[in-house]
Amino acid sequence: GITWTTSGSGTFSSATSLTATYTPSAADIAAGTVTLTITTNDPAGPCTSATGTMTITINPAATAAAGSSSSICAGSTFTLAGVIGGSATSSTWTTSGTGTFNNPALLGAIYTPSAADIAAGTVTLTLTTNDPAGPCPATTSTLVLTINPNPTVTAGSNAIICSGSTYTLAGTMGGGATGITWTTSGSGTFSSATSLTATYTP
Could you tell me where the DSSP H helices lie in the chain? Predict the structure, then answer.
């Protein structure tokens, strides 16, 4: 029979199994290495127990954080604020759309949406670390950038009316606009200042 022991504080799935699974503790990970020792039972007779050791090196996993999902207006650019850590030493930004980065290798790269990105309304930006030496793989993180259409509005053509008359407006709105408000340089009144077709009484 055998027994596994550790120089650290991790755990074995079964300390008496030759093929046990070892789970490092937080302290083991912080230390970076742990020594595992296998010891046989002390057999009957003159032979003593035997031991063998192995060292596990625990590399820090690569980490990446693309940042929070955000919204911008069409025509604007977006400055990223990615963070990498662990064993990652570099990173690259990619897009699900067709916009461009001023430098995709910068954590604080600036993204300029394309016309197709704006038409789609959203684009996913992905931060991918390098693949560090050792067993730890590269890692990724994503954020969704929502591109809101700019609001548009027209008041209509200039008009001339007779004194004592009212005027029915014919405003239009579009893009990201969902509501309007009429105001006047004078002191007249609107039948409804939030209606595109309000009536103005001078």
Answer: 26-31, 115-120
Q: Name the token pair of 85.
A: 């850590």
Q: CA–CA separation, 116 vs 109, rounded Å?
A: 20
CA distance readout (Å), 65 to 52, 82, 94, 128 = 41, 6, 14, 9
pLDDT (tens digit per residue) in 57-109: 999 999 999 999 999 999 999 999 999 999 999 999 999 999 999 999 999 99
Structure tokens at 79: 């400055």
**pLDDT of 148-174, one tens digit each?**
999 999 999 999 999 999 999 999 999
> In DSSP terms, which residues pair with 129 in a beta bridge?
91
Q: Are 86 and 61 in contact (CB under 8 A)?
A: yes
Q: Are strands 33-40 and 2-6 parallel, antiparallel or unpaired?
A: antiparallel
CB 80 within 8 A of CB 103: no
Number of H helices, E strands in the chain: 2, 19
Give yes or no for a contact between 19 and 38, defined as CB atoms under 8 angstroms apart: no
CA-CA-CA-CA dihedral for 110, 112, 113, 114, to nearest 10? -150
Residue with tokens 């548009």: 152
For residue 108, give every residue at least 6 positions away whose Cβ sits within 8 Å of its Cβ, in sequence order, or none.
Answer: 79, 80, 81, 82
